[in-house]
Amino acid sequence: MMTKRNLIADRRDLILKELLEGTGAEFAAAEVDGGLRRGLRVWFAELDERHGPVAELRPYGLKGHQINLFFGNFSGDVIAQILKAAPEDVQLARALVSSIRTDVAIEIPGQSFEQWSVSDGSFRIRATIRDQEQPHDDAALVSTCHEVIVPLMAAMAELIGYDVIEDRDNADAAAYEGAVLKTVVRRRERNPRNRLLCLRIHGEKCIACGLEPRRKYREAGAIIEVHHLEPLSNLLEPRPYDPRTDLVPLCPACHRAVHTRKPIPYSLEELAEIMGSCDV
Predict the structure, then answer these.
(1) pTM metric for this prediction
(2) Is 52 helix (H, G, I), strand (E, B) or coil?
(3) In terms of Cα–Cα distance, which of 253, 240, 239, 124 is closest to 227?
(4) 113, 140, 160: which is the final residue of a domain?
(5) pLDDT for residue 233
(6) Who contacts 51 (Cβ-Cβ below 8 Å, separation ≥6)?
(7) How many other CB atoms sit within 10 Å of the CB of residue 154?
(8) By residue range, what is the domain housing residue 273?
(9) Nearest to 42 by CA among 117, 123, 148
(10) Mean pLDDT, the chain, whole residue set
(11) Mean per-residue pLDDT for 80-85?
(12) Which of 176, 197, 211 is nearest to 23 (CA)?
């Protein structure tokens, strides 16, 4: 008897590549059997699937995908770490989930979409995508990864504390942008989820000149940069840092242009005036 192919698991390498590019984290994966709903399960490579969050991707009907996010049976240590997440990390995690397209049905049993939290191992998120013309095509799977699995797992990474740079002498210091502690400032600037959320909200299009590098350069086009609207040097006091309102995408040329003036970069309005005055 011939074994029916797992059309999702066949794209394992493609899916892992998209997750790495989207979150900056390494993932592991395993095939999931389930009759007609055979799929793929992914988890952070640094944790095995029993000790942390897992996202399971399966077909949904004939023209859709369903993603279930849950925690392994031995995730107590990771959940204890999540319970210590700072308020701004929780805010960013919720914002990442909220950035998922509105046509994707999101269910968080027993909790509201706006104020969910991970309190124990029973936490679940289910996302359902319908009406995909060719759900097993590479393009459809890439879209599902980019639009759903990446923000879900990025939210979990934020709560767990991936890429956090801590100062042992100031472990209880608030992670405010512009704080005197350089380690804390580096922590916020290097956090790949800040960049991810900025680009999910504003798109990968330069807000100054309109260039979309990915459309122009294809595979080589992941070069859009993220710019602080308010320079850190302008902050008189540390304040909570929100990548939804404090960051914008700029192409490399425009980003370099605004920073040619030091110590205070040009504002976007000033850059627009300069660009306008150069039109012939």
Answers:
(1) 0.77
(2) coil
(3) 253
(4) 160
(5) 59
(6) 72, 74, 75, 77, 78
(7) 26
(8) 169-277
(9) 148
(10) 83
(11) 94
(12) 197
